[in-house]
Design a protein that fits this description.
Number of strands: 10
Largest sheet: 3 strands, mixed
Helix content: under 10%
Radius of gyration: 12 Å
CATH class: Mainly Beta
CATH architecture: Sandwich
Structural class: mainly beta
CATH topology: Immunoglobulin-like
CATH superfamily: Cupredoxins -  blue copper proteins
Mean pLDDT: 93
Oligomer: single chain
Distance between the termini: 20 Å
Shape: globular
Number of helices: 0
Strand content: 35-45%
Strand order of the largest sheet: 2-1-5
Length: 92
C-alpha cells in the first residue's frame, strides 16, 4: 500500500520493485484532505501496462490495481495533480 500524504507517496516516493510478468497488487490510501491519484503512462513507460487509479478523495483508498511489466526496466509512477509526487517502478 502506498500512502499519499503531504505531496509524497510514503514520505519518500519509494521505488517499487516488481518481477517481470508477475502482476503486483497495489492500493493507494489518501491521508490528505486534497485529492490524489497514481498514474503509470504507457507513452512514457514502454514495457509496462498503463493504469490510473482515478481521483482518490481524502481519507479513502483507490481500487486495487495490478502493476504488470512486460520487460525489465525502470518505469515512472506519478500523481497527475502534484508534480513532485513521482517515483520509480523497477522490474527485474
Amino acid at each position: 500500500m502506498l500512502i499519499a500524504q503531504r505531496s509524497t507517496f510514503n514520505s519518500t516516493n519509494p521505488d517499487i520493485h516488481v518481477t517481470v510478468g508477475v502482476p503486483t497488487k497495489l492500493v493507494v490510501h489518501n491521508e490528505d484532505a486534497v485529492q490524489h491519484d497514481l498514474v503509470v503512462d504507457k507513452a512514457e513507460n514502454n514495457g509496462i501496462t498503463p493504469f490510473n487509479t482515478a481521483i482518490i478523495p481524502g481519507g479513502l483508498n483507490s481500487p486495487t490495481m495490478a502493476i504488470v511489466t512486460e520487460k525489465p526496466g525502470t518505469y515512472e509512477y506519478y500523481c497527475s495533480l502534484h508534480p513532485l509526487m513521482r517515483g520509480k517502478i523497477i522490474a527485474q
